[in-house]
Specification:
2 domains; nucleotide-binding
Length: 403
């Protein structure tokens, strides 16, 4: 049973009566029947005691009228859920001439205090108090002084009214806690959905960064084989080897990402670690083997101290820069420059001049640089990119490097 279910069990059924007021009488629950029967029996017991006292001093028509009015008042309590205000006023008036109805009157005041706001309860309670004063003079008790009778009436009315208002306050509190628990559960579900959506977006960006590099190699070398069918056998074999290796690497990367989706937070021995700054050299070597001219200029102060997340971002930025240079400036020399030290931050520059000849059309999504800009911003840094003055393309990023 959840917290909301427990609060719903604690919430008395009278609150449902308030919500359904004016919309028709709700069906009584088992708890309603128990409460109504208990109040009926208590009012009847008080009425019997009052009837025995009345029988000592009255007889004939007066005694019969007391008993009939008392019985009618007790039976009228079954209507207290539907007409609490009218019933309380009516029983207060009846109690003036029929003390036997006093128990039913107190029960109706209690029900009224449970269901109605203080202002309405206050003026009806004042009417009941006034009726109790009048009743002392209309039907006095020979064994008790009038002042004592008035005091007892006031005390009983105040007690049942205060008790009812206390029950009402408690029920309102439980209702508020129930609504708060329901809202908290809804907000928790919403936060979980947002977290899942953000995780999917992050995985999608990661998938793009990982696969774009591999698939670009496939596209470039497949295009070279298409446009140069008469190439020497060694060049064809080299291009075919690059295509095979790139396809294998792409499958490995895709398998790794799918493995993360299936079992987040778990990794097997066959899963490769995420790229870091230490694997940047392997990325450059791979690009050189694919026929690119790449110069890596790294002058970092204590590179081993670069945070893992920052190193991964540097790797992705360099990977995207090399991928774009291979697409749009084949044959041009690409320079990857790393500078920085703890406390000052780390800068990454990827630049290439304009290509010498025509550029083959290689389709792309255009989302790589946007994703890298978001990645750098989330890491606390910034990234800019655009055409260089010499007609080439330059990419510059700064990332924080704590001291």
């Amino acid at each position: 049973m959840t917290r909301t279910d427990r609060l719903a069990w604690l919430l008395p059924s009278a609150m449902a009566d308030d919500a359904a007021e004016g919309a028709g009488r709700p069906r009584r629950t088992v708890r309603d029947w128990v409460v109504d029967t208990t109040m009926f029996l208590l009012a009847a017991f008080v009425g019997v005691l009052a009837a025995e006292t009345s029988a000592q001093y009255n007889s004939g028509a007066v005694l019969l009228a007391d008993q009939l009015l008392g019985a009618a008042a007790v039976c009228a309590l079954w209507l207290r859920r539907r007409w609490p205000t009218g019933l309380a006023v009516a029983l207060s008036l009846v109690s003036i001439v029929a003390p036997v109805a006093g128990g039913a009157m107190l029960a109706s005041l209690f029900s009224l205090a449970v269901r109605k706001p203080f202002r309405e309860v206050a003026w009806i309670g004042a009417i009941a108090a006034a009726c109790s004063v009048v009743q002392v003079f209309v039907r006095p008790d020979p064994d008790m002084s009038r002042l004592l009778s008035i005091g007892i009436g006031f005390v009983l009315i105040l007690l049942v009214t205060a008790w009812g208002m206390l029950v009402r306050s408690r029920r309102r509190l439980v209702e508020a806690l129930r609504e708060r628990a329901r809202r908290a559960e809804a907000e928790a579900e919403l936060r979980a959905e947002q977290a899942q959506r953000l995780a999917r977006e992050a995985i999608a960006r990661e998938m793009h960064d990982v696969l774009a590099h591999r698939l670009t190699l496939l596209s470039v070398h497949a295009g070279a084989l298409e446009f140069r069918p008469d190439a020497p056998p060694e060049q064809v074999a080299r291009a075919a080897g690059v295509i095979r290796d790139s396809a294998h690497e792409a499958l490995q990367d895709l398998r790794e990402i799918i493995g993360v989706l299936r079992t987040p937070g778990e990794g097997g021995e066959e899963n490769r670690p995420q790229p870091t700054l230490d694997t940047l050299g392997a990325l450059v070597d791979e690009s050189r083997q694919a026929g690119m001219k790449v110069v890596l200029d790294s002058a970092l102060d204590h590179p081993a101290g670069v945070p893992v997340a920052t190193g991964r971002t540097v790797y992705r930025i360099a990977q995207e820069g090399l991928t774009n240079a291979r697409k749009h400036a084949p044959g041009a020399e690409v320079t990857v420059t790393l500078r920085g030290r703890p406390g000052d931050g780390l800068t990454v520059d990827v630049a290439n001049p304009a290509p010498d000849g025509p550029v083959p059309h290689v389709p792309g999504s255009g989302q790589g640089l946007i994703g890298l800009t978001e990645r750098a911003t989330l890491a606390g840094g910034r990234m800019t990119h655009g055409p260089a003055p010499d007609g080439g393309f330059a990419l510059h990023a700064w990332l924080p490097w704590p001291a």
